[in-house]
Amino acid sequence: AVDTPVVAVDRAIMQRNIETMASLAQGYGVSLRPHAKTHKCPQIASMQLAAGATGVTCAKLGEAEALVDAGAVSDILIAYPIVGASKIERLLAFMARANVTVALDSREAATALSNAVAGAGKTLAVFVEVNSGQDRAGAKAGAEAASLAFDIARLPGLEVTGVMTHEGHAGFSAPEVIAEVAENAGRALVATADRIRAGGIPITNVSVGSTPSSWYSPRVPGVTEMRPGTYVFNDNNAFRHGRIGPADCAARVIATVVSRPAPDRAILDSGSKALALDLSPSHPGFGYIVGHPTATIVRLSEEHGVVQLPPDEPGFVVGDRVEIIPNHVCPAVNLTDDLFVVSAGQIVDIWPVTARGKVR
Hints:
Elements: E1 6-10, H1 11-28, E2 31-32, H2 42-50, E3 56-58, H3 61-69, E4 75-78, H4 85-94, E5 99-104, H5 107-119, E6 124-131, E7 139-140, H6 143-153, E8 158-164, H7 168-171, H8 178-198, E9 205-208, E10 225-226, E11 251-262, E12 265-268, H9 272-275, E13 288-289, E14 296-300, E15 305-308, E16 321-325, H10 329-334, E17 338-343, E18 346-352
Parallel strand pairs: 1-17, 2-10, 3-4, 4-5, 5-6, 6-7, 6-8, 8-9, 9-10
Antiparallel strand pairs: 1-11, 11-12, 11-16, 12-15, 13-16, 14-15, 17-18
Helix pairs in contact: 4-5, 6-8
């Protein structure tokens, strides 16, 4: 009876995913700090903490504010540089409400934070963000990152307590090399931490983060923390490595067939404003239609999902409903106001995506 498109979350699958990752972290002897950018939902953050997570990771200050102010969490890593006077002012106020660590990868951002934090008589914990191969943000692993850590440590009001990396490039590696790529990233981060300690900074946190590499990088000796995010739902991107399949995907976009203009084409009411525009190396098109693996969502406009159908494909009559596993679940969740929680095929709750749109 629910109108579509809507994101439905199978609570049992999600709980199993949460427990599986918590057990993996425990087995490796590392702490678990899940990335909340995937779900942006206080109820889910609380489930992760109940399963053993020590805190959560957020991409932006706005996400952190929303989750803390909802009463879900109190220990936050903001894995993104805080830059600009308005954000720094918000951070100072936020530090009174939560235990906060901020990731930095530049002297400019560190200096501005130091001036504000020290001026307010506060101390802020800092992780140095390290580029371990993804070539996005982060100081290059080794001497470059260590030099940055030494310079930050000299600034008043800032305490360098750890290093972090996002080894996202491992997830896009071929299945036969993902373990090697992920472990190399972990080793580069540990070596950087050792170099920083040798320079007199006794950092205690060595934090890796990526769901696809969660089985590999945290097992590197010296890693102390892991920060996976998408595991709570899983998505089509994860299929290519063989560990994850449709039965492990807790979140599905439920869509309705609104048109069948040709025998080989159907139209869904889930366009780019429901599924996002990410492609995936795991499966062609803009999502995996459960039960119809050869039907391909070949094109998205804002409100139309165009499905190419093979001959004799059953279903796809106007009015039919389909379940779609998004290619990348994080932006898909950010496009909806609510998550419809399902148990044994019945809707049992509706949870707001409280941090939706919190990109500042």
